[in-house]
Amino acid sequence: MPCQEIDGGKAAMLFIGLYLVALGVGGIKGSLPTHGAEQFDENTPQGRKQRSTFFNYFVFCLSFGALIAVTFVVWVEDNKGWEWGFAISTIAILVSIPIFFFGSTFYRNKIPSGSPLTTICKVLVAAMLNGCMSRNSSNAIANLSASPSYEPETNKEPEENTKQTDEIPTQSLKFLNRAVVNKPAHPALECTVNQVEDVKIVLKILPIFACTIVLNCCLAQLSTFS
């Protein structure tokens, strides 16, 4: 049977459904892995092992679901009709939603402390502005005066020495260390060492993200050929 062109309300329903699917998939892919990783304590060996196990099962379930979608669901659509294929997907989603909410009382929810995009922009702007300012004794990078080879006094606890070392920015991407100054160009641009280090991590993974663009484009095209 040749395909029939649709228009009017049917076309609007089709495109609205496709856009909602794209919006939902984008939200799930960005939030679900992060939510799962936050359920484990990364400061303990057991927590790190459990988090690694979670990602193994997570990727396995994604791959297994994709296998079912391109085999069984496609067979149902070809032999029973497209409405049956969409019905299977809809039922699976409706079943998964209450299962997810039933575990809400056991989840570890991390309280948001601001947008990461705001932090990234603040660190980059602060580094550029502070780099343009003339360097003087009042604008020295915070805590860089402390030498890593400094021998602490005997009456100080090891925890205090560890905190001092943690406050020293790393030497990678040193231009971002300019954001950590005692007197920033503007009070709103005051940054902490942790914020600078977080931005460094994001910048370091950008090349990895760029390498996956071509692969994801190929995977997206495969679904249009089937």
UniProtKB/TrEMBL annotation:
Residues 153-166 have a biased composition (Basic and acidic residues). Keywords: Membrane, Transmembrane, Transmembrane helix. Residues 145-167 are annotated as: Disordered. InterPro entries: MFS_trans_sf, POT_fam. It is a multi-pass membrane protein. The chain crosses the membrane at residues 12-32, 53-76, 82-103. One of its GO terms (molecular function) is transmembrane transporter activity. Signal peptide: none annotated. Coiled coil: none annotated. It is found in: Membrane. Pfam families: PTR2. GO terms for cellular component: membrane. The keyword Lipoprotein does not apply. Belongs to the major facilitator superfamily. Proton-dependent oligopeptide transporter (POT/PTR) (TC 2.A.17) family. This is Uncharacterized protein. It comes from Gossypium aridum (American cotton).
